Amino acid sequence: MEIKEALALLSSVFLIVCGVVYGLKYVRVRKNYLLGFEWLIVAFSASNLLFFLLTGFGPSYSVSFFLDAFSRAFGVPIVAVLGLMAVTHNYKPSVAKDIVIFALTFAATFVLVLADFVKGPLPYFYLLMWCCYTVFLVYFSWRLLRAGEHLHALLNTLAAAAALGIAVVYDFFPIPGDDDKMVFMIYALTVWGCQIVQQYYAYGALERAGARAPGSLVLSR
């Protein structure tokens, strides 16, 4: 096994651990089911990717491919943003609404993956959705700055920039010599895992700031 293959496996494990640990924290501690289950879905996708890398089992790749499409198109740009809005706009939907959101976005993902007519523009759609997510993260950083959380604002901005770089490279600018995508995988899975961790603590910082000044949550509505 080459070093890059070993690092790709380790980065998969890292993303799985981050997704499971912080996904459960969102569910159990924060009671934020949108963020919690989205990161658990990311972890499940990474676990299927890991199993595929170890065994070559085709169905695991298919599951990972579908869940990756879900997260890139809707899971992160829509579901995660709605989850983050709990601390930016005090948006806390009911469990029934959470279920509807996941059901609709999963149904839309099936269309993206299975319909031939979207295959051409699909990479541009992924990038557009991630750009929208990045714009929200810029706003999230601004809210952190307003709350006096300068370190969290800086880390959130850096993580957002790195993740946007991944979104650009993903379909448009393959890394030279990286025919098996291992180098890209190491970078992408590591950044996504770090972003999950960073975002959890930034979320907590903004939540505490809102608790200290309850009126501040509604100022940006």
Quick recap:
The chain is mostly helical and about 220 residues long.
Explain what the structure shows.
The chain is mostly helical and 221 residues long. It contains 7 helices and no strands. 37% of the residues are buried. Mean pLDDT is 93; it is low at 216-221. Keywords: Membrane, Transmembrane, Transmembrane helix. The chain crosses the membrane at residues 6-24, 36-57, 69-87, 99-118, 124-142, 154-173, 185-203.
Number of domains: 1
Please tally the β strands and state the result. Answer: 0
CATH T-level topology: Rhopdopsin 7-helix transmembrane proteins
Name the structural class: mainly alpha
What portion of the residues fall into strands of 2 or more residues? under 5%
The N- to C-terminal Cα distance equals: 53 Å
CATH class: Mainly Alpha
Range of helix content? over 70%
Describe the oligomeric state of these chains in a short phrase.
single chain
Keywords: Membrane, Transmembrane, Transmembrane helix
Transmembrane segments: 6-24, 36-57, 69-87, 99-118, 124-142, 154-173, 185-203
Kindly list the characteristics that best describe this protein:
transmembrane helix, Rhopdopsin 7-helix transmembrane proteins, globular, transmembrane, membrane, disordered C terminus, single chain
Give the SSE map:
Blueprint: H1 3-30, H2 33-55, H3 58-88, H4 95-114, H5 122-146, H6 150-172, H7 182-212
